[in-house]
Design brief:
Distance between the termini: 55 Å
CATH superfamily of the largest domain: P-loop containing nucleotide triphosphate hydrolases
CATH class of the largest domain: Alpha Beta
Strand order of the largest sheet: 2-3-4-1-5
Shape: elongated
Structural class: alpha/beta
Radius of gyration: 25 Å
Order of helices and strands: HEHHEHEHEHEHHHHHHHH
Bound molecules: zinc ion
Strand content: 5-15%
Largest sheet: 5 strands, parallel
CATH architecture of the largest domain: 3-Layer(aba) Sandwich
Number of strands: 5
Helix content: 40-55%
CATH topology of the largest domain: Rossmann fold
Number of domains: 2
Mean pLDDT: 89
Low-confidence stretches: 266-272
């Protein structure tokens, strides 16, 4: 479980939460909102931990309370979430509500974290609303959601909204190194697949497979120099579960190359390691990749789509 000090790029929100704790003026309900993988639940949990620990700034990690929290055994800390792929069930909400009349067991506060609150729906949302409107003393609700629209407006209006900032790509890289034990180069490549969040963490298990295909200059070399291998290449690409993300990454590399090629006109630079792509090729390739991603997203035949991409890249390279 992370502490405030381990969390990146959310300093402003952390300051506000620390202030609420220091003044003992916590709201009845907070709503942590932001895109997937940006660390909403992590921030909410760090907040809960700091509340229970009782230090004003950050959890100490040394007291009994912190140790109990680390083992998920705190009697006043509730983490609720729907079953994978499903919505919240009303009996789960009702069961939680049955504890409401009792005082917190260990201290002054009870914290109820509802992860994936966008899956509450109208029935569970309305049931929960009653508790949020008239919470027993010391009860704090932390709602975590990636969508504001999916929540009942009546719930949203009762919550202090904490909108998380996107992560910088440096932070994403660093988190992959510290949390997933990747080497820096691998982490930076994977960070390139995420849009300012840890969303690519979902692909970590498949990362090794993907890593082999991320280097577009290698693909480009096959396209230019070994057209007889294109058939095998497209067969291998077809097997990738995350093909769209891989092509998205190529697009990012090419966009970076385009920016560099514009820079180079102003300030000539020679870097023999970098593949030399002319602007026209890059622009054509970018279009082709966007078309390919769109086609794949519309469930076009994967093999045929990849074949067409490689063949058209070959034509563009030889133009
Ligand atoms: Zn502590």
């Amino acid at each position: 479980m992370k502490n405030f000090r381990d969390i990146k790029d959310q300093d402003r929100l952390i300051e506000r939460l620390q202030e609420d704790i220091a003044k003992h003026q916590m709201k009845h309900a907070y709503l942590f909102i932001g895109p997937k993988g940006v660390g909403k639940r992590t921030l909410a949990q760090a907040f809960a931990k700091t509340i229970f620990c009782g230090q004003s700034g950050d959890a100490c990690d040394e007291c009994d309370t912190c140790r109990i929290l680390e083992h998920d055994n705190h009697p006043d800390s509730y983490l609720m979430r729907p079953e994978p792929g499903k919505d919240y069930r009303i009996d789960a909400i009702r069961e939680m509500q049955r504890t409401m009349p009792y005082k917190p067991v260990a201290g002054d506060y009870r914290v109820i974290l509802l992860d994936e609150a966008e899956k509450l729906g109208a029935t569970c949302g309305n049931a929960l609303l009653k508790s949020i409107e008239e919470p027993p003393e010391g009860t704090i609700f932390l709602l975590v959601s990636s969508s504001l629209d999916a929540l009942l407006p009546t719930i949203v209006s009762r919550c202090q909204i904490m909108r998380l900032s996107p992560l910088t790509s440096e932070s994403v890289t660093e988190l992959f190194v510290t949390d997933y034990g990747m080497d820096h180069e691998q982490a930076a490549m994977l960070a390139g697949l995420s849009s300012q969040s840890m969303e690519a963490a979902d692909y970590v298990a498949e990362a090794d497979e993907m890593m082999d295909w991320l280097d577009f200059s290698e693909i480009d070399r096959t396209v230019r120099e070994r057209p007889h291998e294109l058939w095998d290449l497209s067969q291998s690409l077809e097997k990738l579960d995350r093909l769209t993300q891989v092509i998205g990454y190529w697009r990012k590399l090419l966009r970076d190359a385009l920016v560099r090629s514009i820079d180079e006109k102003i300030k000539p630079m020679l870097d023999s390691e970098e593949p030399v792509w002319d602007e026209e090729y890059i622009l054509t390739a970018l279009d082709l990749m966007s078309e390919t991603i769109a086609a794949l997203e519309q469930r076009a035949n994967k093999r045929m789509t990849v074949d067409v991409l490689l063949q058209r890249l070959r034509i563009a390279a030889n133009a």
